[in-house]
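lol so apparently i was supposed to do this last week
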Amino acid sequence: MATTKSKEEKGASKGTKDKFSKETYLEWFEGMLLMRKFEEKAGQLYGQQKIRGFCHLYIGQEACVAGAVSALKRGDKYITAYRDHAHPIALGSDPKAIMAELYGKETGISKGKGGSMHMFDKENNFFGGHGIVGGQIPLGVGIAFAEKYQGTDKLCVCYMGDGAVRQGAFHEALNLAMTYKLPVIFAIENNGYAMGTSVKRTSNVTELYKLGAAYDMPSEPVDAMSVEAVHNAMEEAAERARKGDGPTLLELRTYRYKGHSMSDPAKYRTKEELAEYKSKDPIEQVRQTILERGFATEEDLTKISDKVKEQVAECVQFAEESEFPDPSEAFKDVYADEDYPYIMD
Ligand SMILES: Cc1ncc(C[n+]2csc(CCOP(=O)(O)OP(=O)(O)O)c2C)c(N)n1
Ligand SMILES: [Mg+2]
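anyway here it is w/ thiamine diphosphate bound
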């Protein structure tokens, strides 16, 4: 257990605040606030049945992606599971197109055919949005393989939930990535639960970064309520990947403030547990640092917040005013063969 502690302490100490500039802090604040406000609105719209089907919110987990995007380079690839609204927002996709996708409209980022779980934006290096738990992990390794094969200096960040590490595909993917020294960062967003099942109910191995040891993969836990700690861990992993030293496994210790999906009363956790994580809110932490270090005043931050709210309102208006796709679109971009036999007349 002593080893575990020192690893955790190492992860926490990575949150050294002095390293980061005013610009970085303000970008983190605005970026994470946009993810948060966008999703709060999406939650409301779901209640009004404007958004249907599945909808998994990322609220509380924002630092996991904000700290990666600030640490990595444009052109690095990202792939994740179905909790996927914030990743493309962080990568620069148009939030209006993401909202339209939630509405199932033709102007959506996946032309209204993907919905909440299947956002996709190749131009901004976002490879989805995958509904099958663990399904994106081998795909992420494949993307990293392509980068290595083509001799680029780019890498792939492959996000997954804590539930996904119990899938066989995770272990096969780690083995292959380590054997071929592929430029991939496996980022486990450990929010403590897979639907209503806690991590400790699924395996003896509850410190998920330890799973990397079976493949001799550099692995560590990261306090992912701290955007600084995520940035630092991603930066170090990226350096390793770009040098040709292969993959890293990061266990991003995070928390989702909302239920698993929209129909989850979250009875499997206590109010105290939720309150404890809310007291470490990643956005609030950034706000405090900005104020403490004099990077902005309360008034400046309110202006940013107002701007973000306006942006979200524009997203809703855009989605409302967009059309549903024509039924003839249903099979386009879905199958490789354009004359797929079930195309409707
Ligand atoms: C192969 C497969 N099995 C089961 C499901 C049903 N399912 C959807 S989400 C989920 C829990 C996954 O939890 P986790 O990986 O921790 O991600 P989180 O929702 O916490 O982000 C399950 C079991 C699925 N989508 N795919
Ligand atoms: Mg989980």
